Amino acid sequence: MRRETRIRIATIGPGSKINLTPMTYGWADGQVYIFGRGQKIANLRRNPTATVLVDIGNSWRELQGVMMHGTAQVLESSEEEEACPGLAEARLNIGEKSGLVKDGQVIPYGATASGRSRRWIVFEPADIVSWNNERLSS
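Above: the chain's sequence. Below: its structure in token form.
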């Protein structure tokens, strides 16, 4: 989770339509941190239920992944961001994954709440399912 760069987050939209979106994310304290905007934020404000998926591998045999069901909190202000214990570590994790480096030091991803819908999402897993097809016999 600390190494991979892409996650897919599924949220429940109006009329129970599922919105599935690939995103960049950070991992800290056993939670997923995503800076998002638009429909994902509107969906999570209405219903905090979400599923996230990280997978790697190109062929079926190489496929490995983790899927987590849980709830997400939208951090609505810079004050909520400052009070969030894992956000600083997650920002640093995203900076590392994104190659944000200055003078040999990783720079934390600096996005912060703005406008009506640019917000941090903190996803807390309730169930975790993982798989590794490399372990399957022929």
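The beta strands are 6-12, 18-24, 26-28, 31-36, 49-56, 64-75, 101-102, 105-106, 119-132.
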